[in-house]
Design a protein that fits this description.
434 residues; alpha+beta; 6-stranded mixed beta sheet; 4-stranded mixed beta sheet; 12 helices; 19 strands; globular
């Protein structure tokens, strides 16, 4: 268990980091440097020598290495991002960048995504310095920029330009996993991420014949694009079960005393009730139209129309995803990746996964740990280019009624103080044994 100072510091650090506005609006509109300097200063106070790195001025990353006691052991990466998504203050109960602590809860953008985890890492590292603790394996700590956009200024830049900083790292932990999922029936489930769907953000372009809006036009770009978007939005993607999702369904079925009928997954999901939310988005590929751009005047048929689609594909599912998009868009609409990352899968029989499970179970003895695959993505995708296997492990014990997943990118994002205490305890125990 972490000491009292670590418990105090994790709350203070979370609040402090929230007050540093690192809103990432995309297109390079963000400045993480003040938060990076804050984290680096706290690491430097422990005697570490953090390195600050930028691809673009103001888009700062921090990397530091804690030397382990076993030089032959493979190193472990522990990472969190410093940027956050935008927040409209008028929509919130408190100002989203106040870091206010009210009634035992820390409020603000980044409270769960993911300045809380950044604060946990800092609190654990500082507690180790006070106690003279050395982990068994080298631990590389990384705080990254730009995760909420392309990661080109963050983990992508680090992986491509500074791989030597991660020498020896074979595994990594980051967001998002080991949080409490309440099933409504009194059970506490703690999903640990051992996979991520790949990201395929798409730009669709339809071209046709421009002309007067009053004339017959069989080559209308807007019509062609609309037809393709409708086909994509209505497409029923086939069921595809990865090893991680199979394991999740099997363990959840056992928890509820159900037969794990993986030949009829939709029926099994119905029987799982609220717990189905942990897996239902990851049993298929998906493609959701999100943006449309066309025309400049109501009586002018444009020669081009553009749409954007948020596509996600399972590990092993990219080829099927591409082929399906070729079919759905048809001959009159071209598509390309605007942003493209790999899907990930991590082994569930690894010592690291077992130690994560054990750490959660020690501090949540009534909880049920299960594996899961994230429907979205994290910096683990970029670090995988260095051969680093990624898990989602940012532990939080949350009260019933506080929906962790709804807080991501949502209004009134917040985290209980007790959840941060649990997180720093679990992270400390895991990293000591990892």
């Amino acid at each position: 268990m972490a000491d009292a100072q670590a418990r105090d510091e994790v709350v203070r650090f979370t609040s402090d980091l929230i007050r540093i506005d690192t809103t990432n609006r995309g297109g390079g509109d963000c400045r993480e440097r003040p938060a990076a300097e804050y984290a680096a200063a706290l690491l430097a106070e422990t005697g570490l020598e953090p390195t600050l790195l930028e691809r673009t001025p103001g888009r700062t990353n921090v990397v530091a290495r804690i030397e382990g006691s076993d030089p032959s052991a493979e190193a472990l990466l522990v990472h969190g991002h410093l940027d956050v998504v935008p927040a409209e203050a008028a929509d919130w109960s408190v100002h989203p960048f106040s870091g206010e602590i009210r009634d035992g809860v820390v409020w603000g953008r980044g409270a769960v995504d993911m300045k809380n985890m950044d604060a946990m890492i800092l609190a654990v590292v500082r507690a180790w310095a006070r106690e003279g603790v050395r982990p068994r394996r080298d631990v590389v700590v990384a705080f990254t920029a730009d995760e909420e956009a392309s990661a080109e200024d963050g983990s992508g830049f680090l992986a491509d330009e500074h791989p030597h900083l991660f020498e020896g790292c074979t595994e990594g932990v980051g967001e998002s996993g080991a949080f409490t999922f309440h099933d409504g029936g009194g059970r506490e489930i703690y999903p640990i991420a051992a996979g991520e769907r790949g990201t395929g953000w798409l730009k669709l372009t339809a071209r046709g014949r421009a002309g007067h809006g009053s004339k017959v036009n069989r080559e209308n770009a807007v019509t062609r694009l609309s037809a393709a978007i409708t086909r994509i939005g209505e497409h029923e993607w086939p069921l595809r079960l990865t090893p991680t999702v199979r394991a999740a369904l099997t363990e959840l079925a056992a928890l509820y005393g159900l037969e794990a009928r993986l030949d009829d997954v939709d029926a099994l999901l119905d029987k799982l009730g609220p717990a189905a939310r942990l897996v239902e988005a990851t049993v298929r590929n998906s493609a959701n139209p999100t943006m449309l751009e066309a025309g400049y005047k109501i009586n002018v048929i444009p020669g081009e129309a553009v749409a954007y689609v948020d596509g996600r594909y399972l590990p092993g599912g990219e080829d099927e995803f591409r082929a399906t998009l070729d079919e759905l868009t048809g001959p009159d609409v071209d598509w390309e990746f605007q942003h493209h990352t790999v899907a990930l899968q991590a082994p569930l029989d690894s010592p690291t996964y077992a130690r994560m499970r054990a750490a959660v179970e020690e501090f949540a003895p009534g909880g049920h740990v299960v594996p899961y695959c994230m429907s979205g993505g994290t910096d683990a995708k970029q670090f995988s280019r260095l051969g680093i296997t990624g898990y989602g492990f940012a532990p939080l014990r949350l009260p019933e009624g506080l929906d962790y997943q709804a807080l991501f990118h949502g209004v009134d994002e917040r985290v209980p103080v007790e959840a941060l205490h649990f997180g720093v305890d679990v992270l400390d125990r895991f990293l000591r044994t990892a």
